[in-house]
Amino acid sequence: MDKVIIAEGRTTNEAIENGLKQLRVSKDRVEIKVLENEEKRSFFSILAPRVVKVEMTVKEKQEEKQLDKREMKSKKIIELSQEEQEKASENVKVFMEEIKKQLPENTNYVINKDKTGLKIDISNENLGFLIGYRGETLYSFQNILSAIAGKKIDKKVRVILDIEGYKAKREKTLEELAEKVSKTVIKTKKPIKLEPMQAYERKIIHSKLQQNDKIKTESIGEEPNRRIVISLKK
């Protein structure tokens, strides 16, 4: 729902500036409608204090709408040839053998390849530091592996990394959270904002609740503080 305020000032510009300060947004983020113009003053109001009123509506960012749609849809998969799969796998293997020397003893990894890219599983119960808070380090590492896999390959190589089954556990946690929060929203009839999440986590929440005929989900804010709001459907 768009945020709307009425701002006042001695001139139109002053009223707009006051409104922008109140909304804490830039001018290009709002629609402005002058309600009382300083030029339209009657003879009897000439001695009254000059007040200009403007209605200001915060516009929803187009890119945010597009992000919501992208979160609900799977990205188009780029297919790799057999030769490209082998090359990507070899690139990652060379890198992982070097990295493995810096990891805890008995760390193992498995690389599975197919035409959609690589799936890499790393196992060792002492790799929490490589997962990081809410998987932040894991996803950064995944991006690095994707770049390494694509060396001397003209296509972007999709890499899915998991460490000690973290992703499956996190997905289950998020689905349980979505169910719990949706029940609270239905009971209280008040929207609830979740904490900031990465895109893949927001997609899990959206997907889990998209079939709920009483609940709607939307993402607000900008990365890395983009989050989901769960509310009742009107």
Report on the architecture of this protein.
This protein is α+β, with helices and mostly antiparallel strands and 234 residues long. The chain folds into three domains: 4-59, no CATH class; 82-164, 2-Layer Sandwich (GMP Synthetase, Chain A, domain 3), CATH 3.30.300; 168-232, R3H-like domain (Ribosomal Protein S8, Chain: A, domain 1, 2-Layer Sandwich). It has seven helices and nine strands; from the N terminus they run βαββααββααβαβαββ. The chain has a three-stranded antiparallel β-sheet with strand order 1-3-2. The protein has a three-stranded mixed β-sheet with strand order 4-5-6, covered by helices on one side. Strands 7-9-8 form a three-stranded antiparallel β-sheet. Strand 8 (215-220) and strand 9 (227-232) form a beta hairpin. Helix 6 crosses helix 7.
Total of DSSP H or I helical runs spanning 4+ residues: 7
**Could you report the average pLDDT, rounded to the nearest whole number?**
85
Per the principal axes of the C-alpha atoms, what is the gross shape? Answer: elongated
Tally the beta strands: 9
The percent range for helix content is 40-55%
- In whole angstroms, the N-to-C terminal distance is 11 Å
The CATH class assignment of the largest domain is Alpha Beta
Structural class: alpha+beta
Stretches where pLDDT falls below 50 for ≥5 residues?
Answer: 38-48
Tally of discrete structural domains: 3
The CATH superfamily of the largest domain is: K homology (KH) domain
In the CATH hierarchy, the third-tier topology of the largest domain is known as GMP Synthetase, Chain A, domain 3
Strands side by side in the biggest sheet: 1-3-2
CATH-scheme architecture of the largest domain: 2-Layer Sandwich
> What is the N-to-C succession of helices and strands?
EHEEHHEEHHEHEHEE
For the sheet with most strands, the description reads:
3 strands, antiparallel
Strand content: 15-25%
